[in-house]
Prior knowledge:
By secondary structure, the protein is of the alpha/beta class. The protein folds into 3 domains: 2-46 and 94-171 and 267-324, FAD/NAD(P)-binding domain, CATH 3.50.50.60; 174-264, D-Amino Acid Oxidase, subunit A, domain 2 (D-Amino Acid Oxidase, Chain A, domain 2); 339-446, no CATH class. It has 12 helices and 16 strands. It has helices at 12-24, 50-56, 95-108, 237-245, 296-316, 321-324, 326-351, 354-362, 368-377, 382-394, 398-419, 428-446, and strands at residues 2-8, 28-31, 47-49, 66-76, 83-93, 112-114, 118-125, 128-135, 139-149, 176-185, 195-199, 209-214, 221-229, 255-265, 274-275, 278-280. The strands form 2 sheets. Strands 1, 2, 6, 7, 8, 9, 15 and 16 form an 8-stranded mixed sheet that branches. It has an 8-stranded mixed sheet with strand order 3-5-4-11-12-13-10-14. Helix 11 (398-419) runs antiparallel to helix 12. The chain is globular and about 65 Å long. It binds flavin-adenine dinucleotide (FAD). Residues 8-14, 31-34, 42-48, 117-119, 150-152, 154, 156, 179, 181, 225, 261-262, 264, 282-284, 288, 293-297, 299 line the site of flavin-adenine dinucleotide.
Amino acid sequence: xxxxxxxxxxxxxxxSIAYFLGRLGVKTLIADLKPWDFVGSKPCGDAVGKHHxxxxxxxxxxxxxxxxxxxxxxxYSPSEQHEVFVSGEGFEIHRIKYTQRLLSDAISRGxxxxxxTHFREPIIKDDHVVGVKIWSGGAxxxxxxxxxxxxxxxxAVVRFxxxxxxxxxxxxxxxxxxxxxxxxxxxxxxxxxxxxxIYINNDVAPGGYWWYFPYSKMERTVxxxxxxxxxxxxxxxxxxxxxxxxxxxxxxxxxxxESGGALVPTRRPIxxxxxxxxxxxxDAAYVVNPVHGGGKGSSMISAKCVSEAIKNALEVGSTSAKxxxxxxxxxxxxxxxxxGSLDIFRYFLQKLSNDDxxxxxxxxxxxxxxxxxxxxxxxxxxxxVDKILKLSSLLSRPSLLLKLRTVVKxxxxxxxxxxxxxxxxxxxxxxxxxxxxxxxxYHDSLM
Length: 447
Ligand SMILES: Cc1cc2nc3c(=O)[nH]c(=O)nc-3n(C[C@H](O)[C@H](O)[C@H](O)COP(=O)(O)OP(=O)(O)OC[C@H]3O[C@@H](n4cnc5c(N)ncnc54)[C@H](O)[C@@H]3O)c2cc1C
């Protein structure tokens, strides 16, 4: 059997690329461990910004694919006495139904779906991935011009590839969050169900946060979860959630509808989304926003960039790293640079004490609109930097002031560096070397 493209994994990233490839008329097979009825199921907060769908011309969730409308997010200080409201439209999406909708669209355009299928290993010939070995009611080999790893944290395909290929960079646990969430039906009515809530408190969720995301279309139903930095041994997000959150009176008598946890990569993207005959998207490519941990929107962006690069590579008749490279220049410009600078910001936030967090939120060092801008652009604008520095200095926080200066400087440096992402694979080693130098200097300066 042979295809132009085989996609391993039909989660949000895999379903998105199947949707795009179907529309581009590329002969595609998409395979997942899960059978059709469960495809897309995954522990998640289910929140996605509306702007992602607009920017990528993706269909909005509708009918029972849509579980809630979002109008903004309130971010609470450790004491919960102070909050910053970030206005912005979004959706609470039904993970299975929306994934199935994307896949159904792709199938209607000729894409083939294979559920209950276990990817086992890639077939490599002359330094080029040429197909996959799978188990689907028996061992099978399938050949293709490109294999796409959309297997999430499993990194099922790339983990088999040589370490020298830049698509195979291992995840360090300190660059990840471990998150656990439950969907619960509460006894009482939820106020402002169109506002998501994020609580920052290092005693409750060190290196992360806990969240309360109501499904506004489903009476009294809410997604509550907690994420912590991945390398904090001895701490477990489920235990912390039960100890600090579910013990609150508003959860008394609530019923658990669904529960589960998973790892979230919260770092800059892998150095390259493509190599000879292989592409990587979604969590397997570390495309999650390092600060808020949302990865659905960026999964769609990585899928769009990779699908277009594949279409063009197929037209020139070669799927080498060089011919697929435009996937990188597309992604790194659209989102990777922002991820890089937010990775710098994430490291800074994870080092702040509860006292600093309380101070920053209560004194409104950054307001909701400004926070939205930082999150969208991965950058502190000059006017904002001046305002924060002035406030911190007026309010005599010299250590915070110093750290902030450093963070802003390195966020800018990283963003500029991603704008210089190489236009061919030959430039990658030098670019990576310079990136690692900037990161090392930054980490040393915040020690
Ligand atoms: C608790 C939690 C809360 C989150 N909240 C949000 C949120 O509110 N908003 C947001 O945008 N993001 C959120 N995220 C992140 C988001 O869920 C992910 O970024 C996104 O789902 C990634 O999609 P994916 O397709 O890359 O991976 P996945 O959804 O993990 O899909 C991978 C697929 O690959 C399949 N697979 C794996 N191995 C194999 C194999 N060997 N053979 C065949 N198939 C295989 C799996 O069955 C799976 O279907 C959250 C994550 C967690 C853990």
